[in-house]
Design a protein that fits this description.
The protein contains four helices and no strands. The protein is mainly alpha-helical. Helix 1 packs across helix 3. It is globular.
Length: 86
């Protein structure tokens, strides 16, 4: 997964997740990452038990912060767009 960020693959995978009928919007979790990213952090460790959505969360983070494509259309209808921090 070394070429995960700044790739179009996470965007496509997360976009497919948002179209599923049982999608739960967890984009507000991105707010907790803003201070880390602003401080120049470059590694994020996501730990959860198995089957708790680690891959979906990693795709969400990568598609939000990626420079490979414009993801504003994907995140505009989600809760992160209502945040005062964005």
């Amino acid at each position: 997964m070394g070429m995960y960020l700044n790739s179009r693959a996470p965007y496509t995978l997360y976009q497919n997740e948002t179209r599923k009928p049982y999608f739960v919007d967890k984009t507000r979790m991105l707010e907790m990452l803003f201070p880390f990213v602003e401080a120049g952090g470059d590694c994020i460790c996501i730990t959860r038990p198995r089957r708790f959505g680690k891959t979906v969360m990693a795709n969400m983070i990568a598609s939000f912060f990626s420079k490979a494509c414009d993801s504003s259309a994907l995140f505009d209808p989600l809760r992160i767009a209502q945040s005062a921090l964005t």
